[in-house]
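DM from R.C. (forwarded with permission)

"hey, sorry to bug you on a friday — could you get me a structure for this? deadline for the figure draft is monday and I only need the backbone to look sensible"
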Amino acid sequence: MTLKINFLNQLKILLDLIFITFIYFLMIYYFYTSFDIKLIVYLLIPYFLMFFLPVSWLHFNYLNETKDVVYEISKNVILKKRGIEILKYNNSDISEITFRLNGSKDTSNGTLAYSKYYYAKVKLLDGSFFIITSLYSSKIDTILEENFKDIKITKEKVFYPII
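My reply, with the result:
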């Protein structure tokens, strides 16, 4: 399976933020005539602090970490392509795969706008590692678990899964 960051994957992961933004500004527009401009500013501050800034920070952090990288994942093999460089990692090269994800991921109550953001840290036997983020696919945990059944896989739940 080829994993590449594209516009549709980014749009899917940003869907919660887009929805919250739409509802937030719809409420401000609806109550605009009865609100003082100061109150609108006070309403925008929590929006930026709780929704917009955390999601933007994570999104750009994930994009920066995985810029111009394409992964091909098959049974016991990961091909990492960056430009003309192709690195092949076999099952025997990988020591552990660690997923760092938000505690509300895959629950019916994804309460935070950034609860869909997570990443896999693939540790190699030589001590190095590489990162595969949820910007590639919302199912990287399933993809890696199915293709690397012999590798130790752990899931760490964190509040804010920044790289």
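R.C.: lifesaver. Residues 79 and 88 are 5 Å apart (CA to CA).
me: no worries. The radius of gyration is 19 Å.
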